[in-house]
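Lecture 7, part B: from sequences to assemblies.

Below are the input chains for today's worked example.
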Amino acid sequence: MSDGQLTSPPGTHDVLSPASRLWEFLIGTFANEARRYGFGLIVSPMFEDVAVFHRGIGEQSDVARKEMYTFTDRGERTYALRPEGTASVVRAFVQHNPTPPWKAWYATPAFRYERPQAGRYRQHHQVGVEALGSDDPYIDLEVISLAWRFYEAIGLRRITLMVNSMGHAECRAEFVELLTAYFEENETRLCDEHTKVWSTNPLRVLDCKKDSCVSLVQEGPTLPASLCAECRDHFAVVTAGLDALEIPWTANPNLVRGFDYYTRTTFEFASDALANAQNAIGGGGRYDRLAEDLGGSPTPGVGFGSGIERLILALEAEESPVVSAVREAGVFAYVVDTTGGLAALTLTSSLRAAGVSVDRAFDRRSMKSQLKAADRSGARWALLIGDQETHGGYVTLRDLRVGDEGERQYQVPRADVVAHVAELQRKNSEI
RNA sequence: GUGGGCGUAGCUCAGCUGGUUAGAGCGCCGCGCUGUGGCCGCGGAGGUCACGGGUUCGAGCCCCGCCGUCCACCCCA
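Predicted structure of the full complex, as structure tokens:
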């Protein structure tokens, strides 16, 4: 529609109910899980001084080079919409200097200017956690296990966890040196693309999918071989911990991820149900230099983020029963009032105060029409109030999911209705 | 940034080699049933055929452009 109709910008989407119920479920489940692990919610600005991201994710990263939404405000300050979650959380940590270990979770949009396609959008959404102030590998394990338990809780089954260690700054630098020397010697064996651009970010070649790069990388220096004893030990504790928690994992020495801030532990979760290239549903790692790079005192950290849109794609691809179950959940009761609407006003108010989820009709529609709306709402019960009920001082309860006409309706005194329906809802939720 | 497919009703789509009032299913509203949803029957509302040009006696259909969308590459959530 380019006929003047205003629409959402390219690569962005409106999520309406009932599809958004899945979002409520995912974010709500993540919030519960994060609280259970002792993480507190952080709400921070969706835009930051562009330096936060340049110094954070690295100026040579693809995201910083070509995908950032940068703008200048009226005060001539240069900002960028956040392309990912970690850098701004660490900026907030540096600014407020909370007592470590500091554990924060978030749910936020993230913005990247790129061509939209399956599972990739210009505005997508992530839930995630960051833990700052400890380099203990057991805190890496808290982050990874939180992610794993979260995926279990939302019903994902076909998830693969890949782990790797980048080493600390010296190991990493040494590896990059070895890699650079190796590529210089064998430049002709790189794929066409990387022959031109490999030197800006040699690590990128590691996850190139072209045959030429793949075979070259296989024969070249490896990250594990470049790790110092301390980094090797750190990684060994992480993998042993995964085994102790019975979380299946595979080592992937070529897993480097897109942001430059990673040190030591890196990991990524992929869905086996997603066939396309966008099968990563979450990932993260350790970033022991990031706080320092953003002007704070040296503070190690580890975190992870997961894309909500990707989680939904993965659940759908698995044909998870969770998807339909969550989408079909509606209100529990629906008030049908053919006496004008005042009775529905007071009854819905009392029911809601008692914790019952209830909807009603408006516009003085016919009973037939209101019942139709009740049916559509997904409500289990219709609460009928007509002239008979008003005069008799009762409400008729109609079970909308019973087929047998004789068994589906009964009357409850007006004074008892709220308690009665609240009880029905309580029993229903036990099932 | 590069390349390809597709834009017809709220949704999913049909529309023959260009031919006169543009169709279906689902959804929506109403009626059959002056107090009762889901099934059934009947009726109704809803479309400048994305947009702008062009060719033609005539364009939803052909050509050009443009926007959007989907998909692939790069890379990621």
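Note for the exam: The longest strand of chain A covers residues 102-111. Keep this in mind when comparing with the next example.
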